[in-house]
Amino acid sequence: MDDLRYLVYGRSGCEFCVRVCDHLRDQKMEFVYFDLTEDEEFLSRAKQFYNWQTVPIVVSNNKLTGETKLVGGCDDLCSN
Questions:
Q1: What are the start-end ranges of the E strands in 3-67?
Q2: In whole angstroms, what is the distance from residue 78 CA to residue 18 CA?
Q3: pLDDT tens column, 42-78
Q4: Residue 8 dihedral angles phi and psi, to the nearest 5°
Q5: 23 φ, ψ to 5°?
Q6: 23 pLDDT above the threshold of 80
Q7: What percentage of the chain's residues is helix, strand, coil (to nearest 5)?
Q8: What pTM was estimated for this model as a whole?
Q9: What are phi and psi of 5, to 5 degrees?
Q10: Quick one: 1 exposed, middle or buried, by C-beta within 10 A (0-12, 13-18, 19+)?
Q11: Phi and psi (nearest 5°) for 67?
Protein backbone atom coordinates (compact mmCIF):
# COMPACT_ATOMS: atom_id res chain seq x y z
CA MET A 1 0.00 0.00 0.00
CA ASP A 2 1.74 3.15 -1.22
CA ASP A 3 -0.11 5.49 1.11
CA LEU A 4 1.06 3.67 4.25
CA ARG A 5 4.30 4.25 6.10
CA TYR A 6 5.56 3.29 9.53
CA LEU A 7 6.95 5.49 12.26
CA VAL A 8 9.44 3.75 14.53
CA TYR A 9 10.44 5.31 17.83
CA GLY A 10 13.49 3.66 19.36
CA ARG A 11 17.03 3.83 20.66
CA SER A 12 20.30 3.20 18.87
CA GLY A 13 21.83 -0.09 19.92
CA CYS A 14 18.44 -1.67 20.67
CA GLU A 15 18.41 -5.06 18.94
CA PHE A 16 14.62 -5.00 18.61
CA CYS A 17 14.71 -1.55 16.99
CA VAL A 18 17.32 -2.81 14.51
CA ARG A 19 15.21 -5.90 13.81
CA VAL A 20 12.10 -3.79 13.10
CA CYS A 21 13.99 -1.52 10.69
CA ASP A 22 15.55 -4.53 8.94
CA HIS A 23 12.13 -6.16 8.63
CA LEU A 24 10.55 -3.04 7.13
CA ARG A 25 13.48 -2.63 4.75
CA ASP A 26 13.25 -6.30 3.69
CA GLN A 27 9.52 -5.91 3.05
CA LYS A 28 10.20 -2.70 1.08
CA MET A 29 7.90 -0.76 3.37
CA GLU A 30 8.37 2.97 3.82
CA PHE A 31 9.34 3.98 7.35
CA VAL A 32 10.83 6.81 9.37
CA TYR A 33 13.05 5.95 12.32
CA PHE A 34 13.31 8.33 15.26
CA ASP A 35 16.37 7.66 17.42
CA LEU A 36 15.38 8.89 20.87
CA THR A 37 18.55 7.79 22.65
CA GLU A 38 19.36 11.39 23.52
CA ASP A 39 15.77 12.55 24.12
CA GLU A 40 14.43 10.70 27.15
CA GLU A 41 11.70 13.31 27.68
CA PHE A 42 10.22 12.79 24.21
CA LEU A 43 10.55 9.01 24.59
CA SER A 44 8.69 9.14 27.92
CA ARG A 45 5.93 11.19 26.34
CA ALA A 46 5.65 8.80 23.38
CA LYS A 47 5.43 5.83 25.76
CA GLN A 48 2.69 7.56 27.71
CA PHE A 49 0.80 8.71 24.61
CA TYR A 50 0.80 5.26 22.99
CA ASN A 51 0.51 3.44 26.33
CA TRP A 52 3.57 1.35 25.37
CA GLN A 53 6.43 0.86 27.81
CA THR A 54 9.21 -0.59 25.64
CA VAL A 55 11.03 0.29 22.43
CA PRO A 56 10.54 0.17 19.62
CA ILE A 57 7.17 1.82 19.40
CA VAL A 58 5.86 1.06 15.91
CA VAL A 59 3.02 3.15 14.49
CA SER A 60 1.38 2.88 11.07
CA ASN A 61 0.63 6.17 9.37
CA ASN A 62 -1.68 6.71 6.40
CA LYS A 63 -0.04 9.49 4.39
CA LEU A 64 -3.32 10.46 2.69
CA THR A 65 -5.61 10.67 5.71
CA GLY A 66 -3.03 11.28 8.45
CA GLU A 67 -4.53 8.45 10.51
CA THR A 68 -2.05 6.78 12.82
CA LYS A 69 -2.47 3.47 14.57
CA LEU A 70 -0.28 1.74 17.13
CA VAL A 71 1.12 -1.51 15.75
CA GLY A 72 3.07 -2.30 18.92
CA GLY A 73 6.64 -3.54 19.22
CA CYS A 74 8.99 -5.81 17.35
CA ASP A 75 7.02 -9.04 17.82
CA ASP A 76 3.77 -7.32 16.87
CA LEU A 77 5.17 -6.03 13.58
CA CYS A 78 7.34 -8.97 12.58
CA SER A 79 4.73 -11.65 13.28
CA ASN A 80 2.24 -10.10 10.83
A1: 4-10, 31-35, 57-62
A2: 12
A3: 999 999 999 999 999 999 999 999 999 999 999 999 9
A4: -120, 120
A5: -60, -45
A6: yes
A7: 35, 30, 35
A8: 0.93
A9: -135, 165
A10: exposed
A11: -65, 135
